[in-house]
Amino acid sequence: MFIELLLSQHPLAQVGIAGFVGLILGTQAGIGANLAHRRGLEWQTGFILGLVFTGFLVALLYSTRPIEKREPLIAPTWLSKYGKWPAVVTSAIALVMTGIMEAIFSGPPVTVANAPIFELGLVTGILSIPALIFFVILGGAITSKWFGAAEPLGSTTAQDSTVESLTD
Amino acid sequence: MKAKVFFLVSGLMTLCLVATYVGTSRASVYAEAYSDSLRTSSIDEYLGEDVLIPKSVCSALGGRISSKLEAHPALGALAELSETFSNTRDEDGGLTQSSYEWLRDSTFAETAELQLQDRVGVRSAIMSTLGLDTSAASADMVSSTSENNLRQELGKLKDKNQLPQEVSTLSWGPSYERKLAAICGSSVRNAVTESTADYNAQLLEFSDGVASLWDNVWLKEGYTVPSSPLVSYQHLNGNCSRVACAKISIRTPISCEVTVFVMFSDDDGDLYDFGDKTLDTRPNISRTFEVPGGSGYGTYEILMTTCS
Fold it and tell me: How confident is the model at residue B11 (pLDDT cuts 50, 70, 90)?
């Protein structure tokens, strides 16, 4: 059973699941951090709180406070440093692993002795942990652009009023 | 910017979901192929390569077969019989009345169910009585050696963590045994030949002597003859009025009234009882009679003969 469980963790599936979950976690925490940041909270503090308590809760708690910052958000530099390229590299490793698996299974008949499946499954299994972290950061990095310089501040008013109306 | 962020995140999530779907699909294919690799009929198929059987295994196997055959009680029994029988012969090695009396009085002829047979038949009966089955003996040793060797190979795989619990090794034994038998065939044959050479020579001499008693001494010298007549049958190959029939031949060493009970089983396995036939025979002259048959070409079975 353990072997089949390990086998079902294909590199693409492992990194895909980790990436999907990471993006959801990072995005919702990033949105919460964005909203809280406009109401005086440090962005990365809001991001961490969003990861721990969910971004929705952070946004809800800080929605009672008045908006203090209306200028475009300058995202912390570590977001793009640890979010973009590590996620790309992780995905590339998963693709390479996938290629190796495909090469093994398209070759001579698979035997237990000649198939390094356990090693591949283990490597990608371990890889999915940093992949999760990198994609969480990537989610945060992307959503930190929500109130980017290119976005006119006026366009955020509608959302602000929506959030504020939730707390009324 | 919001739209860009939205589409970027949505696109990445979709990409992740697609990767997950593709990965899961391929993983199920891999898992199936891997499961197949766990159910193999031999250790060679499991490993994807031939497991080498060193020549030393064959020589050790040959040695064990020799030891087993040489220690078989049949060799001692035959040597004893042969020696006793030789003592009854004259100086020139010819058969004497003592030879006949020994055979008549010994329990050996009765135990071996010796009848008036040719040399091959006598030899076969003696071999059967002595119970030395070289094929079975060597097959047993091959089997035990194979089992032992395979256990060692499995141990090596376990040590290398190449034998998960899911692997079924039940059908590996017979295939490994066949392989061992094929590789060590000449060693086994040599061991059997060498270790039974003396036995075979003694057997040949002894059975020839006993057969000679039937053919010569009893008939020519007028000794008392045994009560068992020689009965044989011969198919007439369908020349018997469209039904299978056979010609039963009876040959006895003395004048005798012989009763033969005949049964016939046809191709379908149905059994026919053709009753009994009584004939008066003369010494060493064949008497024949035909028996009817069932449909098709069946086989006849001589159930019982009596000579009174």
Answer: very high
How many angstroms separate the CA of residue B121 from the nearest CA in chain A? 53
Q: On the CB side of A45, how many CA atoms lie within 13 Å of its CA? A: 8
Q: Does A115 touch chain B (CB under 8 A)?
A: yes
Q: Do B46 and A113 touch (CB under 8 A)?
A: yes
Give the range of the structural domain holding residue A16, as residue numbers without chain letter. Answer: 9-167
At residue B188, φ and ψ (nearest 5 deg) are: -65, -45
CA atoms within 13 A on the CB side of B114: 29
Give A156→chain B minimum CA distance, Å: 9
First to last CA, chain A: 53
Q: How far A147 CA sits from the closest chain B CA (Å)?
A: 7
Contacts of B29 in chain A (CB under 8 A): 105
Tell me phi and psi for residue A110, to 5 degrees: -75, 130
For the segment B239-295, what is each residue's pLDDT rounded down to a tens digit? 565 455 677 777 666 667 777 777 777 767 777 777 777 888 776 677 877 777 666
Contact B258, B229 (CB under 8 A): yes
Q: What is the pLDDT of residues B58-99, one digit of tens each?
A: 999 999 999 988 888 888 888 888 888 888 887 877 777 777
CA distance B280 to B232: 16
Question: What angle separates helix A11-38 from helix A55-62, to the nearest 10 degrees?
Answer: 0
Residue with tokens 């996938």, as numbered in its chain: A98
- Residues paired with residue B259 on neighbouring β-strands, in sequence order: B278, B306
Nearest CB partner across the interface for A111, out of B4, B37, B164? B37
Give the CATH number of domain B230-307.
Answer: 2.60.40.3230
> Using an 8 Å Cβ cutoff, are B98 and B218 in contact?
no
Tokens of A148: 């980017």
* Segment (H or E) for B211: helix B197-212
Q: Which of A45-54, A84-93, A133-142, B240-249 has the lowest mean pLDDT?
A: B240-249
As annotated, the residues of chain B forming the CATH 2.60.40.3230 domain(s) are 230-307
